Amino acid sequence: MKSLRFISAEAFVSNAEFARKSLGAVAHDLFPLLFKASYLLEQGEVIHDLVENWPLFDFNMGKLLGATMDYQEDLSHRTCSVCLESCLTGLRDYVLNQSSPYMKKLKVVDLTGIKDVEVQFCKCEKTMGRWARTQLLSKLCSELLVYLQQAQCNPGTFEISINVLIDLFVTERNYELVVQALLKKCSCPLKICCVAFRSDNLTLQKFFYIIKLTDPSLLRKLEIVHNVHLEMEHLEMLFNSIHFPLLMSLTLPARTFNVRRFTATDEQMLANVGKKMGEMTQLTELSMSFSILTGRIQKLLSPLKTPLKMLDVSNCSLNHADMAFLANSFHAHHLEALDLSGHDIPELYPSTFFRLLSHCSSVLRSLTLEDCNIQDTHVNMLILGLSPCQKLQEFKFIGNPLSSQALKHLFTFLCELPMLKNVEFPVPRDCYPIGITYPIDDASLCRFDHQKYERVAEELNLILLQANREDVKASTPLFGSYDAAVQETNNELGTYLIKSFKETLEKFTTSFNK
């Protein structure tokens, strides 16, 4: 619902030429209203001029685009390229604008409230993701500094200092540009302040260099993923050389830990890593999927003084001792998001898992149990375990050998969870050829009866519809949930994987010839 003020703002900015000429006569407290109206209508030129002449002390994208009294719809998930580019170039021109520096009040720009989602509604149909925002801001900062050094600018321009809070995403392709922007931060009026840092497709040397440039004392979220070959000794080195006092969320790449080849030295190293994480008093989110941590969860997590709210230990080869520690630890009562995918829960530790689920049931919002060998005979027990989870918003259980009938039974129960919004369910076992084995390999994943699957999916959605749960989205993403960061850089990552495969083949051929 739009207020009369917002409708008037839309009418004002819809005529871009008139709006741009009239900004000088607009009251300062109307700039946020006009910004959101311009963003909704994708009026790039108006957005640019609003930012260039911003009269307030702060510019917070999340608050400006979020739900307001004048317009309740949240636009922060619209990563429209036209709007965001206009916004960032407007910020550059704010610095270059020759108006009196005494009129320039802006001190903080917060870009961290922008959310990257799968479905976009902007007319231009072109998005600017986190990687591209990192690239553009770094480029504008470098260009701005060059221009200021070459041109005759108002001396007051060099006194402008604006902290730009952003979630950086760095890969090999934009590494040099970001490094240059960070190195010149002290001299540039626009000062990049990294609140969250994601690195992919970087050598360890480059990662260690750039992470120090980001000012780790400000970092709240650190994601080291995919093609950064970080192992436990490198992680210990990172924690010994850099302090992360505000770090709240840590994501480590696959195979950071591998206890199968541990020596006595490695055991001590693991204990040191756990101790260092314990010193991070703000840490509440930890993801370390696809590491081998059998029997070592307690050693790694027991030093933590703050309870975890999010834990991802998918495909970590946990044993009964690990699950028992998690179920009995103080973390269990605070877990809002839990991923235990890749573990044979019904076979290895059914009662311990349900004890863990019982302890976190009052706060649990997201549960992922993909490839956990949950079969038809386990559905009633699963329903019993999930019943107290009244705050559950997301349940993902792709890759489990469940029949169509079992899924219908489960969906009937899921309708009773009042907060549930998203369900990711497997292709029914009876849609695959007889004799299919689980977990299903990639080659066989798509070899199922698609027509039968569509019929079952319709029946499941009908169960939701009849229970008045149209608000629940049910889907089967065969190759995993949408990841905005991976989607944005998939071409670069694909090229890297092909290159790595080629190098491996060449090494093998050379060794074979010798």
Percent helix range: 40-55%
Number of helices: 19
Question: How many angstroms separate the termini?
Answer: 74 Å
Structural class, by secondary structure, is alpha/beta
The rounded Rg comes to: 26 Å
- What integer is the average pLDDT? 93
In what order do the strands lie side by side in the largest sheet? Answer: 1-2-3-4-5-6-7-8-9-10-11-12-13
* Proportion of beta-strand residues: 5-15%
- How would you describe the shape? globular
For the sheet with most strands, the description reads:
13 strands, parallel
Count the E strands: 13
- The low-pLDDT segments are none
InterPro entries: LRR_dom_sf, LRRC14/PRAME
Protein name: Leucine-rich repeat-containing protein 14B
Keywords: Leucine-rich repeat, Repeat
Family: Belongs to the PRAME family. LRRC14 subfamily.
